[in-house]
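Sample entry copied in:
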Amino acid sequence: MRRQNPDLNFECTYWQAGLTRLAGLDEAGRGAWAGPVSAGAVILPPDPGVHAALAGVRDSKQMTPAARTHWAQVIRKTAAAWGVGLASHMEVDRLGIAPATRLAMRRALEQLSLPPEALLIDALRLPEVDLPQTVLPHGDARCLSIAAASVLAKTARDALMAASENDYPAYGFARHKGYGTRFHQAALQRLGPCSIHRMSFTPVKKRLEAEE
C-alpha cells in the first residue's frame, strides 16, 4: 500500500551525499482532453524541519481545492526555489503527451532561481537533462519535493482552466478543468471541440470524425 504522507527519505539520501539542490518534478493535466499540461519544480531547503513546515502537503489529487491553494502559498514561501512550466494543447497534439510533459518539466526547471544538482521525478525521466535523476512511480505520494511540485503544477493549471471559462463558458472548464467528465463529454458531443481541445486525443478526435 502506498504511503499517503510523503516524506524526505529520498532527499536525505542526496543531502547526506553532499547534493543539496534537489528539484522535485511532477505534472498535472496529462490525461485531460483540453488545455495545457503543466509541470512544477520545487527545490526544498536541505533541512529535515521542512517536513513539519509542509505537513499538509501530499499528492495534490488527494487534497481539496482549498487545501491545494493554501499549501501552494506555503510551498512558494518555504521552497529554496520553485518554478512552473507549461506545454500548450497545440504542443501536446504536435509532440505527443509524453514529450510535451517532458517539455513542460524542462520549462519548469528553467524557472528555478537556483540550478539543481539532481532531480526527483514522478514517473518520467528527462534524457535531455544531464543531471542525476531518481524516477519514482507514485512519487507524489512518497517524496515531499515531488508532492510539492504536484501542488504547484495542479494549482497553476487549474487557475488557467478556470480562466478559460470566460472564453468557453458552455464547456464547464472551471468545473472539470478539461478532464473527461460526463458534463464535459456531453458538451463535447453537443458543441464539438473548441480551440483549446487536444485534437489528437481519442474522444476529441472521434467527435471531429463524426462531423466529416
